[in-house]
Design goal:
The protein has 311 residues and is α+β, with helices and mostly antiparallel strands. It contains seven helices and 14 strands. The protein is extended and about 135 Å long.
């Protein structure tokens, strides 16, 4: 009986080892298949190639009479590509005053901080972006206002707003940016031609918005085909203040009291100048208003009255 029990234990031990080995092999196979499943999509997905982007000019000077500037972009991409060009400003912490009515007057009722959004967002494409890119791809690259809105962070002086209030503030912020011309999407604006070299040639010309503040702006060009981004390029555009605007900005930062005094002095001079011009214009209008009717002198009036009385 002892020998039989010992043999039974040995058989069970061998069977257990076999089961453990089989499970180990299965786990290794499952792990290997998992790695292959993860690696295959990456290998199959086309990696975007670098495409050229020529920018002219790459520096815009903002002088006293600055009113925007014409800008041109051009380059080449893989053949058969749809082209999309996106211009973004840096992310800034923007502060707004929320107005509210208290009785008969309007006052500031809250302060709203908005972060996580570009100061400028312009998107130009050769055709409607939704025809050659999926919503998931657009959201991943933040290529429209809806995807920018998802990244937006809003806080007020009273803390985090509730979802309904947050939605109102977010929509108001986007509407403000659109009305200023700093958020814009234009389809069918990028001109595309297929060259004999097998490449897609693209050009874009437009007027830079005058409301864009000084700073650096990132320009990105995307070449899209078969629902994927097959090419990508970029450049940097700089807006710099020159002349009198640059002098005033430097004075405000280095000598704030001098800047305030100069601003008051200029306001006084402008006020007196406008008053003098208005007075001169009023005087000129009186002189050219027409021929004046002569007014008789008192002696002539008395003589005429005597003659009429005598008759």
């Amino acid at each position: 009986m002892a020998l039989k029990s010992e043999n039974t234990l040995r058989e069970r031990s061998c069977a257990t080892r076999v089961v453990v080995r089989r499970r180990a092999v299965l786990w290794l196979l499952a792990f290997a298949f998992g790695l292959l499943a993860c690696a295959c999509p990456l290998a199959a997905a086309p990696q975007p190639v670098s495409i050229p982007l020529k920018l002219s000019p790459d520096v815009i000077q903002m002088s006293t009479f600055y009113n925007g500037a014409p800008i041109r972009m051009e380059g080449t991409a893989p053949g058969g590509s749809k082209i999309m060009i996106v211009l973004r400003g840096v992310e800034k912490d923007e502060l707004f005053n929320k107005k509210g009515r208290v009785g008969p007057i309007w006052v500031n009722t809250d302060k709203v901080h908005v972060t996580g959004t570009p100061s400028l967002f312009l998107r130009f494409s050769s055709e409607d972006v939704h025809t050659f890119l999926s919503h998931e791809m657009i959201d991943a690259y933040a290529l429209d206002e809806a995807s920018i809105k998802k990244r937006m962070q809003i806080r007020t002086s009273k803390g985090q707003p509730d979802p309904q209030y947050w939605e109102i503030l977010a929509n108001s912020y986007l509407d403000l940016k659109k009305s200023d011309g700093n958020y814009r999407r234009v389809a069918d604006r990028v001109h595309v031609t297929e060259g004999a070299d097998g490449l897609t040639h693209y050009t874009l010309a437009f007027n830079w918005p005058k409301t864009a503040p000084p700073g650096s702006y990132q320009i990105e060009v995307y070449a899209c085909r078969d629902g994927a981004i097959v090419g990508h390029g970029g450049a940097v555009l700089r807006l710099v203040e020159v002349g009198f605007p640059a002098f005033m900005v430097n004075l405000a930062h280095t000598h704030p009291y001098g800047y305030g005094l100069l601003a008051v002095l200029m306001a006084v001079i402008a006020g007196f100048g406008i008053d003098a011009i208005a007075s001169r214009l009023r005087g000129g209008r009186r002189r050219v208003s027409g021929e004046r009717v002569p007014v008789p002198e008192p002696e002539q009036v008395r003589a005429a009255s005597a003659r009429h009385g005598g008759h």
